[in-house]
Amino acid sequence: MLAPISWRVPPRHYGPWEQFVSLLTEGLVARGVDVTLFATADSITRARLAATAPTGYSEDPALDAKVWEGLHIAAVFERAAEFDVIHNSFDFLPLTYSRLVATPVVTTIHGFSSERIVPVFEKYNSGGYYVAISDADRHARLDYAATIHHGIDMRAFEVGAGPRDYLLFFGRIHPDKGTVEAIDVAERAGIPLVIAGIVQDREYFEQEVEPRIDGERVTYIGPVPPERRGELLGGALALLHLVNFDEPFGFSVVEAMACGTPVIATPRGSMPEIVRHGENGFLVDTAGDAVSAVHASAGVDAGAVRASVERRFDAERMVDDYLALYHRVVELHRVRA
């Protein structure tokens, strides 16, 4: 299992790719699968841990990302003969090693940061085994072995019993994620907004978000560790996910629903695959629609919201899907060989 090394596995706060790796790795180990996890040295796992980088380069600015990424990826492929499958959750760079080894490489594509990276996926398309994390995120020029939605540990979340007297923005603070749009909607709805997450775009935060933070109507609490996530999500009236890009998946959306909290989302990317309008949230096209959805959220049954994702997005279902895929890939790769 090849993890990214931006953050440790599992992440301390932000790190959706590392979160995915942790959930899948621990689920496979629990099923008796022999897993070697290539991740940072401070990662926590029941699998065999193989590490080069001491910690995530996003956590230690002294680390040169390219140097440690090169060492990290090479470590996996130098040991390729030991494994039945290499599962690449690192993005496109490991694909450049894939034709140098006989071991099949399954690649979970966590979205496309830019069209500029697509040529790498295209080059290795014929011999690779690509997994999309939503149907919406499938690229028209690539072939896929499967679409497998992420899962979460449903046991870590329960329906909130809080007052549900605030709205929540939960995610990286970046124009793509619609932080300012969430502030606008909360202001128009007359309900306080809590903002949680890392600042990914410092200029956007300082110029457009920070001036509107007053500690009352708009509060910023920074990154939230896993142990606090359920309480925060479960206490909100609704999660505002008014994204300005095609969302590949959206962990926070599913986590909110697992806490019984409806999600108000722009219908871009994977959102129509996750949000069932009127049942576990609302898909909205305008700010006015979002304000109406905020007021309608009070009438949504929290138990029904939880039930809508309990099986579809449980980590155990995700593990089942990947195990089935690994078996198919091993057989298909043998036939190809």
Structure description:
With about 325 residues, this protein is an alpha/beta fold. It folds into two domains: about 15-150 and about 315-335, 3-Layer(aba) Sandwich (Rossmann fold); about 155-310, Rossmann fold. Helices cover about 35% and strands about 15% of the residues. It is built from eleven helices and twelve strands. β8, α5 (about 200-210) and β9 form a beta-alpha-beta unit. About 40% of the residues are buried. The model has no long low-confidence stretch (mean pLDDT about 95).
Summarize the entry for a quick read.
The chain is of the alpha/beta class and 337 residues long. The protein has helices at 16-30, 65-77, 118-123, 179-189, 202-209, 226-234, 251-258, 271-274, 287-297, 302-309, 315-336, and strands spanning 36-38, 48-50, 86-88, 105-109, 129-132, 146-147, 167-170, 193-196, 218-222, 238-241, 263-265, 281-283.
Oligomer: single chain
Order of helices and strands: HEEHEEHEEEHEHEHEHEHEHHH
**Beta-strand content estimate:** 5-15%
* CATH domain fold name of the largest domain: Rossmann fold
Spatial gap, N to C terminus: 22 Å
Unreliable stretches, pLDDT < 50, 5 or more residues? Answer: none
Strand sequence of the main sheet, in spatial order?
A: 9-8-7-10-11-12
Instruction: Report the CATH architecture of the largest domain.
Output: 3-Layer(aba) Sandwich
How confident overall, as mean pLDDT? 96
CATH top level assignment of the largest domain: Alpha Beta
